[in-house]
Amino acid sequence: VEAWSDNKRRKFSNDFKFGVSTSAYQVEGAWNVDGKGESIWDRYFHDNPNVITDGRNGDEACDSYHKYKRDVEMLRELGVDYYRFSISWPRVLPSGFPNEQNKLGFQYYDNLIDELLKYNIMPMVTLYHFDLPQKLQDLGGWANPHSVDWFVDYVRVVFDRYASKVKHWITINQPNSICTSAYGETAMTPDLNKGITEYQCTKNILLAHAMAYRLYQKEYKNKYKGSVGISMSLNWADPVDNSTENVEATEVFRGFNIDLFLNPIWSKNGDFPSIVKKIVAEKSKQQGFSKSRLPVLSPEEIELLRGSADFLGVNHYTTDLVKASAKYIHSPSFENDVGVEIVLDEKRNQSQPSWLRSAPYGLYKLCIYINQNYDYPTIYITENGWSTKTGLWDRSRVENMRLYLNALLLAIEDGTTVKGYTVWSLMDNVEWQAGTSERFGLYEVDFDSRYKKRTARMSALVYKRIIQSRIVEKDWEPRNLYISSQ
Length: 486
Ligand code: GBH
Hints:
GO molecular function: beta-glucosidase activity; galactosylceramidase activity
Keywords: Glycosidase, Hydrolase, Signal
Enzyme class: hydrolase
Bound molecules: ligand GBH
Number of strands: 13
EC number: 3.2.1.21, 3.2.1.46
Oligomer: single chain
Family: Belongs to the glycosyl hydrolase 1 family. Klotho subfamily.
C-alpha cells in the first residue's frame, strides 16, 4: 500500500477524533513540589544522572504543573478534540496508598481537567505511564502480586474524583515496555532475576488492568457511561528476508511482543499465546527450572482478563526487521526467550533515535493483523510520532505524519475500527534516558528559558489544518509560523 498511489481523495469521517498526548513525568516537572511523592524515575535519574544523554531529567521538564493554562491554549490553537495526559500516582498518593491523599496534587488535575472542559476538549486520562511511587517499588513493584491491589486502590480514588468529568480512560501505558524493556527501569534492573520478573510483571500488570476495568464496569459505568482501554506498544515486525528461519523468527517475535499482551484480553479463548507458553516452558526446563518461568493463569484469571477493555490503545512508531539469532545463551532472559535480532533498514528515513525509522505501511499491516487475530477490536491510535533536533521547520515530522495518516485511512477503508488518532507529542518533553536530546513535539520547548517557552512548529500548523479539513494534503505548507489562538 502506498499513499497517494491512486487518485482517491480519502477523508476522515466527521466523528473521527484527533488528539495529542503527553505523560506526567515527561512534562509536569515540580517533582517535589506541594507534597508530591518520589517516583521510580525521580530516584533512578537522581542516582544515575549519567544515564541521561544530555543530563536533563524531569525535575523541571516543561513545568506543566505551573503552565497548564498555556498547554490548554496550545490545544485550542491546534483545534484537537481531546488531550491524552497521565496522572502521576505519587503526586496524588505520595505513599502509594490512599491513606495519604495529596490535596494540592489533586488540585492540579482538577484545574487541568476543568480548563479542558471549559474549552470543550475531552480529557483522555492515562492512569499509569511508567512513574510508579518509589515506595511501592521498594516492595517489589509490579513483580509483587499485591501490586494488583495497590493499583486498584489508587484507581478507585481517581475514578471517584473524576469519573463525572473524564469519559476516556487508559489504565496502563505500554505494559509490554514496562515489563520487558527499559521503561520499568528500576523494576527490571539488569541482573535482577532476569527472565523471571518480566513474566511476573506481565501477569500482575495485566490483572491490575483487568481489575481496574471491572471496577469501572461495576461501579461507574452505568452512571457515567465512559470507556476504559489500555495502550500497548505495538510496532509492526517483518522478517528481514523470506527465508523460513527468519519468517519463523518473526512469528515468535510477534508472539512475545504483540500477542503475549493482546491474546489474554482480545482473543476468543483468552490466556497467554501457546507459542510463548511453549518456548518459555522449553527453555525453562533446559535451564534447570522446576517449572516454566511464565506464570500460569488460572481459569478465573483467564475469565477476568478476557474482554476486559472497551478499546485497544495502539502506540505505533515503526516497523522492526527481524532476523533469527544463531547464538544460544544459557542464562534466562526475555530477550533470550524471543531469541531474535532486530536489524535496521538503512533505506528508510531515520529520525533522531536509531530505532525510529519511517515505515508507514507497517501501521496498515499491524491493523490488518489485529483485525484478523482479534476480530476487529475498537482502536484508538494513542501514540504516533517522530523525533527531530530543535528547529521549527520540521518537514520530516510533517512528512512522516502525513504518510502514517494515509496508511491509517487505508486501514480504515479496509475495515479497521479506529475512533481516534493521537500525536506523540503535544510538545517536546523529557524522553526518559534520552533527556531532551530527542524532540517529539508539535511545539518546541525552550528548556533553558525560565518559562519553558513553547513555540509552534510547522507540524502544528499542518496538523491543525488536517483536523479542520479532515484530509491529508500532499504538500501544503504554511507561509509563516504565526498561529492565532482565537
Ligand atoms: C513511547 O514508547 C512512550 O510511551 C513515550 O513515553 C515516549 O516518549 C515515546 O515512546 C517516544 O520515545 O532506545 O533502542 O532501546 C514507544 C515504544 C519502546 C520505543 C522502547 C523506544 C526503546 C528503543 N518504545 N524503545 S532503544
